Amino acid sequence: MASLSADSDSVVPPKVLEDLKQLLWGQGLKDEVFSRWTQGFVSSEDEPTALVQLEGGPCAVIVPVQAFVLSNILFTNDGVNEKWRETKETDMIGEILHASLVQILQQTGNSNFTLFYTQQNNKDSKNDSHENGVKKITENGESSSKRRKFGHEKFHMNLRCQHCHSLEDLSSALKSKLSSFQGEMGVLLYLYSVILTKGLEQLKNEMEDPNEPLIDGVHGHGSQSLINLLLTGKAVSHVFDNEKDVAGLKLQGISKQSTIGFLTLLEHLSYCKVGSNFKNPALPIWVLGSETHLSILFSQDKVLVAPESKATVATRIFESFDPEGNGFISSILLGDVMTTLGLVSELAYVEIMKKKLDMEGLGVIVLTNFMQEFFPEELGLKEPVHFTVYHYNGMKRSNPDNKVRYQEGDGVIQELRGLPLVTTSTPIKTCLQTKWPTLDLQWKNDGTPSLN
What we know:
By secondary structure, the chain is of the alpha+beta class.
């Protein structure tokens, strides 16, 4: 096994540290905002595999890490782990956290890695409360009013970094320092590790506006670029697929299918459009975004990430030519839509279809008419899909009895094309219906999970 020599540890060069702080925090970092991020990756006493978030802000890091923790608990190389909720041993949870932290660093695409630590935290893990496990936090520890407050100047003054030149070195180093990431500054230490591993210049190249800090200086919320970095390894600023050309400006979105999905209530409010790469991830785990917070919906039922039907693909592609969501496109674009879908698109045939689908000569093609013409067999009623889902919210105050636990629910997706679905609306259901318009949910114990 490769060894880590002492000279692989170093003081962070002042210029690098200043650039990192500028990219992350912007000008005039306030201790009040900084202190919201001063916590480690700690597990709930009531749900050992669930990470607890102490204050608003660091969900942009904690929730993606939690999503990868879930991916390593719910699924194994042999399939589904049916006893996933019985994972309670401290050492086992520590191993899963370790694997998840390595995974996120690995997906940055760099072969050299940087781990941050502070001088006072660079101790052998045996001196901690236990070795390589997730530290439990007491009821007092979960109360932000009773936590120690940290100034950012002292934190940055004590920063050190360790360079790892292989995945094997990274895994070994992170394991030896795991207790630091579970300690009082662990989330920030890990965030700084991800950023410097990715590379400051590469981050700036991926962000739409590198002058916009990754963390809001007033409220301490992480930007979409930061969320995307943790989820996909790329700090692009948008959630649509691939790239878009807007008035000659190339805007970067999600370039390939993600392991972990992302859905947001902001799509319902027409602030953005989440693309298929985020909506249809490899695993049935979705980070959910409200206006100010992140949580997670997850399941072990892979029917939720089954390949898209022809009708779903056709609808998605049609809608990509309808960015304003009007439900129709200009008839001029019909040939482009048909070409993209691999349909017969010879000019004469396209002209025939234009006249058939736009009999009144309005110059528009309506989605409903398009689907009935080209995909009639896909529009019939199908058997409803039933599945079990769980919701995670790391904030104590957002959980029943102030206990961070997974909330279980039963979901059903009805195939009711063309018919309205009449159900009681809640923020979480509204968010999820941006992917499954006919979704209905029943949560156990009469408790509807909170997105905030």
